[in-house]
Automatic annotation (TrEMBL):
<dbReference type="Pfam" id="PF02517">
    <property type="entry name" value="Rce1-like"/>
</dbReference>
<feature type="transmembrane region" description="Helical">
    <location>
        <begin position="103"/>
        <end position="122"/>
    </location>
</feature>
<feature type="transmembrane region" description="Helical">
    <location>
        <begin position="160"/>
        <end position="179"/>
    </location>
</feature>
<keyword id="KW-1133">Transmembrane helix</keyword>
<dbReference type="InterPro" id="IPR026392">
    <property type="entry name" value="Exo/Archaeosortase_dom"/>
</dbReference>
<feature type="transmembrane region" description="Helical">
    <location>
        <begin position="474"/>
        <end position="492"/>
    </location>
</feature>
<feature type="transmembrane region" description="Helical">
    <location>
        <begin position="307"/>
        <end position="324"/>
    </location>
</feature>
<keyword id="KW-1003">Cell membrane</keyword>
<feature type="transmembrane region" description="Helical">
    <location>
        <begin position="512"/>
        <end position="534"/>
    </location>
</feature>
<feature type="transmembrane region" description="Helical">
    <location>
        <begin position="410"/>
        <end position="426"/>
    </location>
</feature>
<feature type="transmembrane region" description="Helical">
    <location>
        <begin position="65"/>
        <end position="82"/>
    </location>
</feature>
<feature type="domain" description="CAAX prenyl protease 2/Lysostaphin resistance protein A-like">
    <location>
        <begin position="444"/>
        <end position="528"/>
    </location>
</feature>
<keyword id="KW-0472">Membrane</keyword>
<feature type="transmembrane region" description="Helical">
    <location>
        <begin position="438"/>
        <end position="462"/>
    </location>
</feature>
<feature type="transmembrane region" description="Helical">
    <location>
        <begin position="352"/>
        <end position="374"/>
    </location>
</feature>
<feature type="transmembrane region" description="Helical">
    <location>
        <begin position="128"/>
        <end position="153"/>
    </location>
</feature>
<dbReference type="Pfam" id="PF09721">
    <property type="entry name" value="Exosortase_EpsH"/>
</dbReference>
């Protein structure tokens, strides 16, 4: 073999690994989105209360599965970031495996099965039909998970990779699966008198600073603000933050071993992380109590018992680890760390990540404002800010989109807007613009006309449709168009019109216009609809 042949082989190996890495990120992102959709559907839309279903144990067990899967995905991602050899071996194996569209179709079928109870029983009827609901959720989740795993590579290849990782991956996955149990084991910490007393003093102080009239009883864990009385029990006390920070930091220390200065890590960073988690929980309790007193009690109660706290504490723990991983003061070999980081491609210029992450941020922002405001529309400025920040992060990738103006794109967007407006009904549930300040109106128009079209087209057409349609296969492209349009329709109150609009945007994309054409048509449609909504004060249009 000549030197040129060796270079070519090395280049081919690199391209295979790069292709595998992109497919891995795609499926991991899809798994997060699907898990998030199921959690939101049964936490906010259906609002399932296990204690009132008659199947408390089964319901609680299934709810814990969602937390375990979220922890599993998080820990797996952390493991692959830290263990570069395992990551390279996995991406190489995935890159060599053939694409399996049928497995991806199986994944989408599982998601639909998990959401079937909402269509069969309605959000209000889920609690009464909890047994078939739990069965369908578990069945759909298992099918979706199997499809996602098989879409990357066959089970035999997975087993080979798992054996190669040895004990470290097994340890990481075991930690992830028992993470909810670890949080429950640490709940008695809340009964330590010093902790609860200081926490209640600080929560009371924060509430008083906000101008609220506060009554509290630290011995009984009771706080009342303007008639809203709440008991902070062990499950909703925020002790899970201590557990998550401790578990993630312990796993990081085990995986990194001698690469970090363990004494500094545990004696300086760990106490600081626990203190930060505690302060975060004080703010969380105070905000939720104010929501219950001034906005809506049900949102405050759901906020204490939802997955929102788990997500926020997980993000906090990962932030602490990111600081540790980049701190030269904590790393025993910072030069090697910098060299390894230099080998990674620029994430901000990766179109795959740009197609997925802003959509996840948009969905997370919806959950956040739903937990804070009784009318989630009031929190739209926060949603717009989060979405804009996500798009700004990936601006190096987005600026690569090329577009030549085409009359058909503008005409398609105008036609969609016309049908949407003509078939709408006046919104009598919300006030007019006199009840909306200029910040709300401005951010609502910005989000509707610019931000949402970009994010939705990146995900539904630039990601899902492109991956499912493939190249030069008409039947596969038609099926992909129908599936992605149906998923797009589920994002809108009027499913049929949403699906039709998604089909038109997808057709523009497939017929040579590319992603930019779909974005422009979407922007035109939303701009015309937003103009009519603003002029008629019928905000239900958008």
């Amino acid at each position: 073999m000549s030197i040129s042949d060796q270079a070519l082989t090395a280049g081919e190996t690199g391209r295979v690994a790069q292709r595998g890495g992109r497919r891995l990120l795609l499926i991991l992102g899809l798994a997060v989105v699907e898990l998030f959709i199921i959690m939101v559907a049964y936490q906010l839309l259906a609002n399932v209360h296990c204690k009132f279903t008659g199947a408390d144990l089964a319901c609680t067990t299934v709810r814990s599965v969602a937390g375990r899967l979220l922890a599993l995905l998080t820990v797996l991602g952390l493991y692959l970031i830290l263990m570069r050899n395992a990551y390279h071996a996995l991406t190489a194996a995935i890159g060599q495996a053939p694409r399996r569209p049928s497995a991806l179709a199986l994944n989408f079928a599982g998601l639909i099965i998990a959401l079937v109870p909402l269509a069969l029983f309605g959000p209000a009827g889920i609690n009464a039909w909890i047994s078939p609901t739990l069965i369908l959720i578990c069945l759909g989740g298992a099918i979706a998970g199997l499809g996602g795993v098989l879409s990357l590579m066959p089970l035999r290849a997975w087993l080979v990779w798992l054996r190669g990782c040895g004990f470290s991956l097994t340890l990481a996955l075991m930690v992830a699966l028992v993470m909810p149990d670890i949080t429950r084991m640490m709940e008695p910490i809340w009964n330590i008198e010093a902790l609860t007393s200081v926490t209640f003093i600080l929560v009371t102080w924060v509430l008083e600073v906000s101008g609220a009239t506060v009554w509290s009883d630290a011995a009984l864990h009771l706080i009342r603000v303007d008639g809203f009385l709440v008991e902070i029990g062990e499950p909703c006390s925020g002790v899970e933050g201590f557990a998550l920070v401790t578990t993630f930091m312990g796993l990081y220390a085990l995986l990194m071993g001698r690469d970090i200065r363990q004494t500094r890590y545990w004696l300086v960073l760990f106490p600081a992380a626990l203190l930060l988690s505690w302060a975060f929980n004080v703010a969380r309790i105070a905000i939720l109590i104010l929501i219950g007193a001034w906005i809506a009690p049900e949102h405050a109660v759901n906020g204490f018992h939802s997955y929102a706290g788990w997500l926020m504490f997980t993000l906090l723990a990962l932030l602490v680890l990111a600081i540790a991983h980049r701190s030269r003061w904590l790393q025993s070999n910072p030069e090697a760390l910098a060299a390894a980081a230099a080998e990674l491609p620029p994430m901000r210029a990766d179109m795959l990540l740009a197609s997925i992450i802003p959509f996840i941020v948009m969905m997370l922002s919806g959950v956040l404002v739903s937990a804070i405001w009784a009318d989630p529309a009031q929190g739209y400025p926060l949603r717009a800010a989060m979405i804009a920040a996500a798009l700004l992060v990936f601006w190096p990738a987005l600026r690569q989109l090329a577009y030549r103006p085409r009359p058909i794109d503008i005409a398609a967007g105008a036609a969609i807007a016309a049908v949407w407006i003509v078939t709408s009904t006046p919104d009598i549930s919300r006030g007019g613009t006199d009840e909306r300040d200029m910040l709300w109106v401005g951010t609502r128009l910005l989000g509707t006309i610019v931000l949402v079209p970009i994010v939705e087209e990146l995900f539904f057409r630039g990601y899902l449709l492109r991956r499912m349609a493939g190249q030069s296969q008409i039947l596969r492209a038609v099926i992909a168009l129908l599936v992605t349009s149906a998923l797009f329709g589920l994002m809108h109150d009027r499913f049929a019109l949403g699906m039709a609009a998604g089909a038109i945007f997808g057709a523009l994309y497939l017929r040579g216009g590319g992603l930019a054409a779909a974005i422009v048509a979407h922007m035109v449609a939303n701009a015309l609809i937003a103009y009519v909504a603003f002029a008629t004060e019928n905000w239900a249009l958008i």
